[in-house]
């Protein structure tokens, strides 16, 4: 893992983002103290998670930006305890 201070990161942000996207990982330092990590995203893992949401009926996708499936309100009065038990099931 490489280290980079905040000032250098700010001055060369595009370069560090490109390098992180290519697989490098950076520990970001603020006054020589680690404050964050910069790493690229594993796109295949993110895509698999999105496909799982669609498959489970929690999201919809028709070729554009995915949308969340709206939750329909319950009919009639419901008790909080019953709702929690139902959601756990």
Protein model, in words:
The protein is an alpha+beta fold and 89 residues long. The chain folds into two domains: 2-38, YefM-like fold (3-Layer(aba) Sandwich); 42-69. The protein is 42% helix and 21% strand. It is built from four helices and five strands. It has helices at 6-11, 13-21, 43-55, 80-88; strands at 2-5, 26-30, 33-38, 59-60, 67-68. The strands form two sheets. It has a three-stranded mixed β-sheet. The longest helix has 13 residues, at 43-55. The chain is elongated and about 60 Å long. The mean pLDDT is 85.
Short overview:
This protein has 4 helices and 5 strands. The protein is of the alpha+beta class.
Name a few traits of the molecule.
single chain; 89 residues; alpha+beta; YefM-like fold; 42% helix
Bulk shape: elongated
Query: CATH homologous superfamily of the largest domain?
Result: YefM-like domain
Structurally, the number of domains stands at 2
Q: Which bin fits the share of residues in helices? A: 40-55%
Structural class: alpha+beta
Radius of gyration: 21 Å
Q: Quaternary arrangement of the chains shown?
A: single chain
List the helices and strands and how they pair.
Layout: E1 2-5, H1 6-11, H2 13-21, E2 26-30, E3 33-38, H3 43-55, E4 59-60, E5 67-68, H4 80-88
Parallel strand pairs: 1-2
Antiparallel strand pairs: 2-3, 4-5
């Amino acid at each position: 893992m490489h280290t980079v201070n905040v000032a250098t990161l700010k001055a060369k942000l595009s370069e560090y983002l490109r390098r992180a996207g290519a697989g490098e990982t950076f520990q970001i330092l603020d006054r020589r103290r680690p404050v964050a990590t910069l790493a690229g995203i594993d796109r295949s893992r993110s895509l698999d998670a999105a496909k799982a949401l669609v498959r489970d009926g929690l999201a919809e996708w028709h070729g554009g930006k995915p949308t969340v499936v709206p939750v329909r309100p319950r009919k009639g009065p419901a008790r909080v305890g019953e709702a929690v038990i139902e959601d756990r099931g």
